[in-house]
Write a structure and sequence with these properties.
9 helices, mainly alpha, 221 residues, Arc Repressor Mutant, subunit A, WH-like_DNA-bd_sf, single chain, 3 strands, transcription regulation, transcription, WH_DNA-bd_sf, 2 domains
Length: 221
């Protein structure tokens, strides 16, 4: 399977970005190759195209499958497994969000709910007489409320089809204005005390002269 220079650049960059997102570079490169491929491809083709060891490819494909970003399919007349991924970026986004929620958010929510709502059964029960624990519970309630609100919003977004979701995102500015109300203009600069202007340079030459105070040498004796 040959790649164009543009495809090579995309795959290499996807691998670099994957490492910054906490994903193995090889895993990200294989996902990029599956995303660009017009058909399902075998592990041997992945090895040959990306110049990777077979064991590395097998491990990476299992990791992609655990993220629901690679699935096995079969081709008539070929007993080998072929692999493909979502071609719609919104489907990829949803798969990543759902898996990150399962791996990262839900364990944290479980711990917070147990500590805040059922402290007696928590792994480390809060001491009702310790002000440090009481302050900590306040902070934990804030985190719990924030995460529950965020996950509820994610659930609502995941129920929408991509076209509706895109329309909703494009309406973001109008929705923000509806929630916040019309943006109020900044107040006009206040006049400077004493002579009714902001800067003394704004005075007319004659007016500027009139506002100057006499120096001791100019005062009549």
């Amino acid at each position: 399977m040959s790649l164009s220079p543009l495809q090579e650049r995309f795959i290499l960059h996807w691998g670099e970005m994957g490492s910054r997102w906490g994903v193995n570079r090889t895993v990200a490169q294989i996902h990029a190759l599956l995303f660009l491929s017009e058909r399902a491809i075998t592990a041997d083709e992945i090895c040959e195209t990306l110049n990777l060891a077979r064991s590395n490819v097998s491990t990476s494909l299992k990791e992609l499958q655990s993220w629901n970003l690679a699935r096995v399919t079969h081709v008539l007349g070929d007993r080998r497994d072929h692999f493909e991924t979502y071609k719609d970026v919104w489907d990829i986004f949803r798969a990543v969000v759902q898996e990150r929620r399962r791996r990262e958010i839900e364990p944290t929510l479980s711990m917070l709910r147990t500590a805040v709502l059922d402290g007696a059964n928590a792994e480390v029960a809060p001491d009702q007489n310790d002000p440090r624990d009481q302050r900590t519970l306040v902070r934990m309630r804030e985190v719990l409320e924030f995460m529950e609100t965020g996950t509820s919003w994610i659930d609502e977004m995941n129920r929408l089809d991509p076209k509706t979701l895109i329309k909703l995102l494009k309406m973001g500015a109008r929705i923000q204005q509806y929630v916040r109300g019309p943006v109020k203009p900044l107040p006009a600069p206040q006049a400077a005390a004493g002579h009714g202007v902001l800067f003394e340079d704004e005075l007319e030459p004659d007016a500027h002269h009139d506002t100057q105070t006499d120096t001791p040498g100019d005062r009549p004796s």
